[in-house]
């Protein structure tokens, strides 16, 4: 099975498991004060890893060892949006990226409850359920709908997070905070959101999504407007047309 089809199959299999458990009792525990992990995260990761290992390529997942490998490897978030899932809020996704060092070259994100499979390969465009997608054509921040998220430690040092949120809120047409960065990025790629910012994410949160945005014609940088890779801790993604306006605000709130 080629690598794209393998990644798609793994995401779909994890999605089926997540739908199966969605309205059933399952175990939830704390990794941090407000950072959750459920038994469905762990079952999903085990399922994805078992499938991806057939490729012979190493797998790095959210619930596995947190080391950065070299060369080619899979980067997996088995269930992005765990807090949503634990509360039965239907905004969550498995996210799978194939990496070459720090660069994603293949990405798959599956919006489980809407049965929307987003995928991209470097140089081949971005797709939603086999239909090619493009970023939006909104040209000014005042007409844009943005997405963001808050880090788990926001209650400890809220000033920069709240400050950025305030500034974007008063400049944009609207801001949404749904709780799964992978889906936020997929929605930028398909033009449902015009831009996205978030601090202190992990590499498995953004790897697949940044490839989707780039292949859909968008732009991804850090808060300073510099080149971004998933191992940095602040991200801006947009349709490209409003990107400089985002940088103008975000550069004041580098975590």
Query: What is the ordering of alpha helices and beta strands?
Result: HEEHEEHEEEEEEHEHEHEEH
CATH architecture of the largest domain: 2-Layer Sandwich
| Class from secondary-structure proportions | alpha+beta
- The CATH C-level class name of the largest domain: Alpha Beta
> Largest sheet, described in full?
7 strands, mixed
CATH superfamily of the largest domain: Fructose-1,6-Bisphosphatase, subunit A, domain 1
User: Got a strand count?
Assistant: 14
Helix coverage percent: 25-40%
Mean pLDDT: 93
- Percent strand equals 25-35%
Shape: globular
- Write down the domain tally: 2
Alpha carbon gap, first and last residue: 41 Å
Task: Describe the protein in words.
The protein has 255 residues and is an alpha+beta fold. The chain folds into two domains: 3-132, Fructose-1,6-Bisphosphatase, subunit A, domain 1 (Fructose-1,6-Bisphosphatase, Chain A, domain 1, 2-Layer Sandwich); 141-253, D-Maltodextrin-Binding Protein, domain 2. Helix content is 32%, strand content 26%. It contains seven helices and 14 strands. The strands form three sheets. A seven-stranded mixed beta sheet has the order 3-4-5-6-7-8-9, with helices on both faces. A five-stranded mixed beta sheet has the order 11-10-12-14-13, with helices on both faces. A two-stranded antiparallel ribbon has the order 1-2. Strand 8 and strand 9 (131-132) form a beta hairpin. Helix 1 (3-21) packs antiparallel against helix 2 (39-52) and helix 5 (181-189) runs parallel beside helix 6 (203-215). The model has no long low-confidence stretch (mean pLDDT 93).
